[in-house]
User: Fold this.
Amino acid sequence: MTKGRETIDALRAWGLTLPGAHIKAPWPDHADLAVNDKTFAYLSTGDEFRMSVKLRYTSEVALELPFATPTAYGLGKSGWVSFAPGDDAIPDIAQLKDWIEESYRAQAPKKLVKELDARS
Assistant:
């Protein structure tokens, strides 16, 4: 198993612990994270690391990374960022979780965000 696959699997498992999170598979070979049926993390299902998240506050900084691009299909205009690093450039898991949580907070209803905040 590649580092990219291991990292995506770990992120998917962690993301499912967020309040109301579930898997959404709108297309073949997709197992994305969603809340209230709104995707908050597009995660690859292959061996390579691929992730897209909505970064309302940190997209400009994230886009400075050489493997980050605005997400296609016009989503980049709304703060969505896609990451495609090689196995040797995958950011640490804490940073990836921060980005997923930021995206979750952008997509989740206020009630579920409050539930998440209450965990801290």
User: Anything to note?
Assistant: Helices lie at 3-15, 59-62, 93-107, 110-119.
